[in-house]
From TrEMBL:
Keywords: Oxidoreductase
Top-level lineage group: Bacteria
PANTHER family xref list: ALCOHOL DEHYDROGENASE RELATED, RETICULON-4-INTERACTING PROTEIN 1, MITOCHONDRIAL
Organismal lineage: Bacteria, Pseudomonadati, Pseudomonadota, Gammaproteobacteria, Moraxellales
Biological source species: Acinetobacter bohemicus ANC 3994
UniProt cross-references to Pfam families, sorted A to Z: ADH_N, ADH_zinc_N_2
Annotated ranges, domain Enoyl reductase (ER): 10-328
Name of protein: Chlorophyll synthesis pathway protein BchC
Gene3D superfamilies: Medium-chain alcohol dehydrogenases, catalytic domain, NAD(P)-binding Rossmann-like Domain
Signal peptide: none
């Protein structure tokens, strides 16, 4: 099968497009013909080897974290899906940038009926991230105040819509050129980060979804009220992350130290800091499908590329200017 893979950690020029073996099906797996997949900033971080110390891979390694496609074959223990079903998922460990991929049935969901494969492929990673942050961890309720950083990004564009569905007042940061666009997504308060310091205009927020890390994460502490939460997908990992990746005893001791400073500062303010390591979850994706079919969440795709243009697509994601998601058309 045709696939996009790497033989070593490196940069975009190290991405190869060529033949790889079709993945082997086991009893709990589903084999899917991939019609479309989306590129996430996470894929660049994997490519560059950012996680090699804690999540090493075997080369050649097929990239790609989420996709939409059609079920080709199911394992002996699979009873929720059948050949011909149109599905989408966050992969169990990459592998979406290929003509075929395999995932566990627990990671898979029927794709929303009212959208294309390309639009469906844009959703799994970002919508699961938003869901696990706002619904599972923060348990956002109607009337609460939520700040979502980088509202025009892939995660932000879905998180704004989900937070509004949950009944929150939503603030977001973005550049001036995207103000009207994120307003259309449902944001109530929009801060142009190039001209305004969010720390100076926001206060007493219940939840912050941090997608930036660094100084933005530190400053977010100052706008959260006591009892509130900061959930980060870019900040330092915590003990829950170490447990999620089944780290060895040494890493279980080291990883929590990375977030000790931010956790300590949060604790002094009566705030809870959590690092979100998003997990594949077919049941949650099924709930997201309902929200898409009812018009509560609309996928946001900036550009679509042919599979042969994957390096151009990576370059565009790498600019950080994408509004929403960038999608690859893998097969018809």
């Amino acid at each position: 099968m045709k696939a996009a893979y790497i033989n070593r950690y490196g940069n975009i020029n190290d991405v190869q497009l060529g033949e790889q073996s079709t993945p082997v099906l086991t009893e709990n797996d589903v084999l899917i013909q991939v019609h479309a997949a989306s590129i996430n900033p996470l894929d660049l971080r994997v490519l560059e080897g950012e996680f090699k110390a804690i999540l090493p891979v075997q080369f050649p390694f097929i990239l790609g974290n989420d996709f939409a496609g059609t079920v080709v074959q199911v394992g002996a223990n699979v009873n929720n899906f059948k050949a011909g079903d149109e599905v989408y998922a966050k992969t169990d460990l990459n592998g979406a940038f290929a003509e075929y991929t395999v995932v566990q049935q627990s990671s898979l969901a029927l794709k929303p009926k009212n959208i294309s494969m390309e639009l469906a492929a844009s959703l799994p990673l970002v919508s699961l991230t938003a869901w696990q942050a706002l619904v599972e961890i923060a348990k956002v309720k109607a009337g609460q105040k939520v700040l979502i950083h980088a509202g025009s990004g892939g995660v932000g564009s879905v998180a704004i819509q989900l937070a509004k569905y949950l009944g929150a007042t939503v603030a977001t940061t973005t550049s001036g050129k995207n103000i009207h666009w994120v307003s259309a997504l449902g944001a109530d308060i929009i801060i142009d980060y190039k001209t305004t310091d969010f720390e100076q205009v926001l206060k007493d927020y219940d939840v912050v979804l941090d997608t930036q890390g660094g100084k933005i994460l530190e400053k977010s502490l100052n706008i959260v009220k006591r009892g509130g939460r900061i959930i980060s997908i870019s900040g330092p990992p915590d003990r829950a992350f170490a447990e999620a990746i089944k780290a060895n005893w040494l890493l279980k001791g080291i990883i929590p130290l990375l977030s000790w400073s931010i956790r300590n500062k949060a604790k002094k303010r009566g705030i809870t800091y959590s690092f979100l390591f998003m997990q594949p979850n077919g049941q949650q994706l099924s709930e997201i499908s309902k929200l898409v079919e009812s018009g509560k969440i609309n996928p946001v795709v900036d550009k679509t590329y042919e599979f042969s243009e994957i390096k151009d697509a990576f370059q565009y994601v790498n600019t950080g200017r994408a509004k929403g998601k960038v999608v690859l058309k893998i097969s018809e």
